[in-house]
């Protein structure tokens, strides 16, 4: 490759990178962010996927979404779910929150005989559980 060809490739690459940098700057501007603010914010590692590094301020939302995705749900399915009511009862001493995870739920249902004790049913999600109990 001669010198002029190399210079042309470098020029094309610089133009391409400049266009992409402008697109990213426009996106940041749309969100009201600056490049400096993105660099300054502390990033933390996602507990579900170690490759995810998230700004600390949005970690709780990310953890919830990532947990749904890890369980095989789509982002759209998570967005259709009603919001959690635990927020409303945080400062109410007379209301006690009871959170039952999938494993506890499966154990309760197996003890009651509502689902079979086979490996594919032991760790189940609410949709499979609903189909098992109500549509039998």
Break the fold down into its secondary structure elements and pairings.
Elements: H1 3-31, H2 35-40, E1 43-45, E2 53-55, H3 59-70, H4 75-80, H5 102-111, H6 119-122, H7 126-135
Antiparallel strand pairs: 1-2
Distance between the termini: 70 Å
Residue fraction in strands = under 5%
Number of strands: 2
Major sheet: size, sense and barrel closure? Answer: 2 strands, antiparallel
Model regions low in confidence, pLDDT < 50 over at least 5 residues = none
Arithmetic mean of pLDDT: 78
Encode the helix/strand succession as letters.
HHEEHHHHH
What structural category arises from helix and sheet content? mainly alpha
What is the radius of gyration computed over CA atoms, rounded to a whole number of angstroms? 24 Å
Shape: elongated
Strand order of the largest sheet: 1-2
Q: How many helices? A: 7
Helix coverage percent = 55-70%
């Amino acid at each position: 490759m001669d010198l002029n060809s190399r210079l042309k490739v470098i020029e094309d690459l610089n133009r391409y990178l400049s266009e992409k940098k402008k697109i990213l700057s426009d996106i940041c501007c749309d969100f009201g962010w600056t490049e400096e603010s993105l660099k300054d914010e502390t990033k933390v590692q996602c507990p579900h996927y170690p490759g995810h590094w998230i700004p600390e301020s949005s970690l709780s939302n990310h953890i919830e979404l990532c947990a749904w995705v890890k369980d095989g749900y789509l982002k759209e399915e998570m967005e259709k779910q009603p919001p959690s009511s635990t927020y409303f009862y945080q400062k109410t001493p007379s209301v006690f929150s009871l959170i039952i995870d999938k494993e506890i739920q499966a154990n309760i249902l197996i003890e009651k005989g509502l689902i079979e004790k086979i490996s594919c049913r032991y760790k189940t999600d609410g949709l499979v559980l609903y189909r098992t109990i109500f549509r039998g």
